[in-house]
Structure formats: structure tokens, C-alpha cells
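hey team, just a heads up i'm posting the complex here instead of the shared drive bc the drive is being weird again. everything in one block, sequence lines first with there labels, then the predicted structure for the whole assembly after. its two chains so it's a bit long, scroll down
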Amino acid sequence: MKRATHCGTLLWMKKRRTILSDSLIFLFCIGAIALISSRTLQGGSGYVQVQSEKATFRYSLENNREITVDGPLGQTHIVIEDGKAHIMDSACPTKSCTHQSPIFRSNSWIACLPNMVLLTIVGNEDELEVDDVAN
Amino acid sequence: MSQTERKIAFIASSTLLLSTLEYLIPKPLPFLRLGLANIPLLLILDSVSLGAYSVVLLLKAIGQGMISGTLFSYLFFISLAGTLASGYAMKGVKVLLKHHVSLVGCSLVGAFVSNLAQLQVASWVAYGPAIWVAAPLMLSLGLFSSLILGLLAQRYQHKGLIPKALSEGTLILELPVIEQQKHHLLMAVATLLCIVAILFAQSLTSLVLITLCMYLMQLCARRKIRILPPLMLIISLVLLSLFEPNGRVLHSFGSVAFTQGSLELALTKALRLISLLSASQSLVASNPKLKGRAGSLLMLSLSYFALISRSFKATEGSVIQRVDQALLKAAQKKDSPVEAFKRKPMKRNLFLFFAVIVYIISIYSYLYTK
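-- predicted structure starts here --
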């Protein structure tokens, strides 16, 4: 009887000794999961949506690429580079769309109205607010 | 084989039994895993050296790959990363905190690190960075399951006969008599060439045909075809394609959309990986020749595993009691030869015929796809 009580006490003491470390590890894991979740659920750097007369296209801003879209006047040539998008060339008379600065912020856009091509950036709203405050 | 080597092989084989048992437990979600195979690792954290522990980790990963047939596929890299990361993290925590940490704490750290490592390797070899959207769910479920696993390990440590025998050094292991298996060199070479063909295949259509041929080869090699893993791979890659828009929008759901380019890319990637997974099954079926000390150790683990599985069927009681009884029986068994892999005869000629079709499809698609 005495021996059983002694064993029980030892076990209880052992549990008490480890409970602090175990709890700290558990809390650390929860904290790390919360941090990782907040980062991953924020999303990437967004994408560019290209609307033409006939279809809508979407491309990630993370990869550099060149896209050609057909409009009523001919082709519009779009370039995605370093997370920004701009119109390189378009079959419009004034070419004013090609002089627009590259876009990268959420909801910013470039339009080539004669050729009916619209570029819009879709990203997360947090990024937009931070950039606006900085500006 | 020394008693230490036998002990290493025996512990590794117990991880194989537990991972097989886990596979048989019905799960509400396919990726929800308890990680039962980690119980033996938790139990030996204190009692074996780092070198022996590392060998057990490797044997566990390779043995699981041999049994499931995924040894020569991307799944092996993901599994290996998880096993090594969790194994060393658990050992590290135990060495650092000694008796201030319980098996529950070690299990929590192991699962957390294992999931992180698996996500990172999965993003490199199969899914791309988009897989990190699954991180919150995977890590949370892992935390919950590792808590249960740690408690299970503690319970087994106190009640099991094998942990007691291991810690007291009273476990004397007999060597099982192993039957040598025939190595099918031609089939192995044909499958290796198929892997090259899969990597060179260009179009989606060619990959569909190749996948079909690879499954037929797998059937000829007498390996079971499992539907769920490839289906899950296709579904997850298609869903992840939502976050990587590329091309014409086919259907949008607010800020995410299925785009033509992304879908084609996801399906091509999925079919390539599924074909490679099937090739891995055929390669394992060819009985790769295992040479040297490491090969003998692996064969010994697989033989112990065959013995334990056989003994497990004849046991009674709760799962813990049955595992304990099966391990004890297998440790003492010396008669009746065991085969590491038991299979029906293969259809070699048909296997080679489908392999040739795979080469032809691949060469055709490589030459004639833009």
C-alpha cells in the first residue's frame, strides 16, 4: 500500500515537472500557427485582370511574362515585369495607354479605350492602405 | 547481425506495422493522420544513441516507401522530409530539456516540424508555393493529433511489455529465416526508361495515355491500384490552381477564378506525378537488389515486419495489447521462413509491351507537340 502511494507520488511529481515545458511548447505551436496563418491567408502580390472585347484573362504578378490581347483595332501588347503591369504597345491611334506608368496597387488600372482593353490590379486591401499612407 | 542491429531493425519494423495499422483506420479527412508510426520513435528517444536513432529514421522512411510502393516517387521525398525533421526535432527537444519534457511535448514539436518540412518539400517537388494555403489547417490538425499521440505513447510506455523489455535490455531478438526473392532486372530497366519517357512527354493527351499504360503495367507487376491518392492529387492541384491565375477566365468566384492556363498546368502536373507514382510501384515490384550492410538491415526490418503482421492477426485484446503481443511473438520467432514481399507471378511480356507503348507515346509527343 505504502509502495503504491510512493509510486503515485513519483508519477505526479514527474507530471508536474514536465507540465510547464509541455504547456510552453503547446503555446509556442499555437503562436507559430497563428503567425503562419496570418501570413499565408494574406495572399500573394495579387494579379492583373485583362478585360478585352471578347474575354477576360487573369495573370499572377509574380511571374514575368508578355501577353497579347485582340481588340477591335488589332492587338494590345501587355508586359508583366517585377510585379508590375503595363501596356507596351497597342493598335490605337494616340498610343496614350503606352505612356501610363506600370500599375501594381490594388484597384489601379490602365485602359486602352479605342481597342477596348482594360487592365486592373486585384490584390489585398491591406497592401493598398499601407502604400497609400506611405505616399 | 549483432543484437543492436537486430534491435534497430525490429524498432523500424514496429513503425512499419503502426503505419500500416493507421492506413486501415477510417479517417474523416484523407490528410488527417495520427502519426502512430512515431510512437516507437518517441519511446526510444532516451534509450538509443543518435547514430542508431538516425538509422531507425531512415529505415522507417525507406521501409514505408517499399511497402506502399512510393519509394521512387515524389511522395518519398515528402515522407522522408517529415520523418527526418520530426525525428531530429523530437530528439533535440529531449536532449535539451531531458526529464523536463514529456512524450506529449516531444510529440507536439515533432508533428509541428514534420508538417512544416512536408509543406516545404511538397511545394518544391509537387504543388508549388500555393500549397501553403493548406498550412493553417494541416498545422492545427497536426497539433491536435500529436497531443493524442503523445498521450497514447505515454500510456503504452507505462503499460506495454516491449518498452519495459527495451529499457531493461531484456529483449533478445531471434533472426528470422529470410527467403531470397528474384530480382527482375529487365522490368526495372524498362520502368526506369518509362520514368524518362514520362518526364519528356509534352501534351496533356499524351500524359493521359501514358498514365493509362503505367497503370496497366502496375497491374501486370501485381501491385494494387489505389484510386484515392491520385484523385486527391488531381483535386488539390486543381483547387490550388485557383490561386495562380494564368490565362482566359473560365469561371470566377469573386477574387479567385479557374483559368485555362492554370487548369491545363495543374492537370499536366497531376498526370505526370501520378504516372511517376505508378512507375515507382512497378519499380518496387521488380524487387530491387539491396546490397551491403544497409541493404541487409532493410531486409531484416521488412522480414520482422512480415513476422509482426503475421503475428498481429492472431492476437486479441485492445490495439495496444495486440501490438505488444505481436511484437513479443515476432521477437522470439525463429522457424517458418518469411518473404519480405509476397506476390503472385508477374505478367512480364505484357509489362514490357506496355512499356514500349509508353516510349512511343512519349517520343511522338516530344517530336510533334509545339
